[in-house]
Design a protein that fits this description.
95 residues; alpha+beta; three-stranded antiparallel sheet; two-stranded antiparallel ribbon; elongated
Length: 95
């Protein structure tokens, strides 16, 4: 996931510790670019319980953990997992 609108710089320069509410108020309208759409940081953090972030890295990891299914690309896709017994399987693709 790529963070847009200078979010990395903004949250890196923010004073920590900071609460979820403080971050949403300050940066909630910033966009996160996902493989299947965009989401605002405020919407993402709104899915979490209120917490206190000790660093920008804590905030970044929390945001990554709370994004919607738009962040996963193709749902259920994997050409690397072994087939289960009784299935015909799939053709492995190498890039």
């Amino acid at each position: 996931m790529r963070l847009l609108s200078g979010l990395d710089e903004a949250i890196g320069a923010h004073e920590y510790p900071a609460t979820t509410e403080e971050i949403i108020e300050e940066y909630g309208d910033l966009e996160l670019e996902l493989p299947n759409g965009d989401e605002q940081l405020g919407d993402v953090l709104g899915r979490l319980d209120s917490e206190t972030f000790e660093s920008a890295e804590d905030l970044r990891l929390s945001a990554y953990s709370a994004v919607s299914s738009n962040a996963i690309g193709r749902k259920g896709y994997s050409d690397r997992d072994p087939s289960t017994p009784g299935e015909g399987g799939h053709d492995q693709v190498s890039f």
